[in-house]
TrEMBL record:
This is Transmembrane protein. It comes from the Eukaryota. It comes from Phaseolus vulgaris. Keywords: Membrane, Transmembrane, Transmembrane helix. The chain crosses the membrane at residues 12-37. The keyword Membrane applies.
Length: 77
């Protein structure tokens, strides 16, 4: 019951939006890292560092969404 009452938190969204927009800078960098990691893992599938490189790229692409969710969850109703 308590979780249903505070589903919409506009104040957390408004406060987190500038930080999410700043973190959008990391999205193209993460996409490039992911692309290079994918190519490297195709060329050398035995290298485990390439898989980790792809994971870092994906986490950088998801970074703005995680920033917004952190602010939305951190600000009470």
């Amino acid at each position: 019951m308590e979780g249903e009452f505070c589903e919409c938190r506009p104040l957390g969204f408004v406060i987190g939006l500038p930080f999410a927009l700043i973190s959008l800078v990391f999205c193209p960098v993460g996409a490039i890292i992911w692309f290079l990691g994918s190519i490297m893992s195709c060329l050398c599938p035995c290298c485990k560092g390439c898989g980790e490189l792809r994971n870092v790229g994906v986490s950088l692409v998801k970074f703005p969404i995680r920033v917004l969710r952190w602010f939305i969850e951190g600000i009470p109703c």
